[in-house]
Design goal:
This protein starts with 7 loop residues before the first helix and ends with a helix. 54% of the residues lie in helices and 19% in strands. By secondary structure, it is an alpha+beta fold.
């Protein structure tokens, strides 16, 4: 079955950790945690932009494609631009802080080297963590493809109907419907009932099948039309469940 993996909480947790670390580092240097938090809040968009540009543009587009010269050049340009933006934030922060009479700040907090080291340490640590996460996700995708390949070797669905084991070719299935205490497999030839639950079929069906509703699983190769809340599968219109709409739209878009 089709699945989409997305974990925004991983990114959120990482950047909360970054805020805490930067606040502690600058708070210790300045001797003023509230001022440090203000400064970190101003600096964070630059760190975010630099990190994601490096990890999701420079690394995949140039480094992974072995275009090392351009990777080095654009990395250098990114470093220069991000340091320039840092200095602008630093200038604005201290102008604002002077107005608030933060006159006891340690001047070590203004060192460019400290800013650069912290910024790029965060970027490279983030790059390593994101890369490890991507490797894990890729392994899951590869395993899913292997599982789907294994499922397709059978080329048929096995269910018990009328106390007999029935084999239904995948390409003949139009959609599967869940009833109150059973399921009904609608094929091009007939309808086959079984006491099995529709949720148990999710892990057994190959990637060409998609659950669009708590009561329906469809063969995506037989979809003729797609609207906001309906699918036309062969000559049958089926509703898309509210909680499934986003997932269905993304999966069907990725299969085009």
């Amino acid at each position: 079955m089709n699945k989409i993996t997305a974990n925004p909480y991983y990114h959120i947790a990482y950047w909360i950790f970054v805020i805490l670390v930067l606040t502690l580092v600058f708070g210790f240097s300045w001797g003023n945690k509230s001022a440090a938090f203000f400064f970190v809040s101003m600096l964070l968009p630059i760190v975010l932009g630099t990190s994601y540009f490096f990890n999701y543009v420079l690394v995949p587009k140039y480094y992974l494609n072995k275009r090392y010269a351009r990777f080095a050049f654009y990395t250098f340009c990114t470093a220069v631009i991000s340091l320039y933006l840092e200095m602008m934030v630093l200038l604005f922060s201290f102008v604002y802080m002077v107005k608030l009479r933060f006159d006891k700040l340690n001047p070590n907090a203004t060192e460019i080297l400290l800013l650069a080291v912290l910024l790029y340490l965060i970027v490279f640590i983030g790059s390593f963590l994101f890369m490890m996460n991507q490797i894990t996700e890729n392994r899951k995708v590869i395993q899913q493809l292997l599982d789907d390949k294994e499922k397709m070797k059978k080329s048929f669905l096995e269910i018990v109907s009328n106390r007999k084991l029935t084999k239904i070719p995948y390409d003949e299935i139009i959609y599967i419907e869940s009833l109150s205490d059973s399921i009904k497999v609608n094929t091009v030839k007939d309808q086959i009932a079984s006491k099995e639950k529709i949720s148990n079929l999710d892990s057994r069906l190959p990637d060409i099948f998609l659950r669009i509703h708590r009561s329906f699983i469809v063969n995506t190769e037989r979809i003729k039309e797609v609207s906001y809340d309906e699918l036309l599968v062969d000559d049958v219109k089926l509703n898309i469940g509210k909680s499934y709409r986003k997932m269905v739209k993304e999966i069907l878009k990725s299969q085009k």
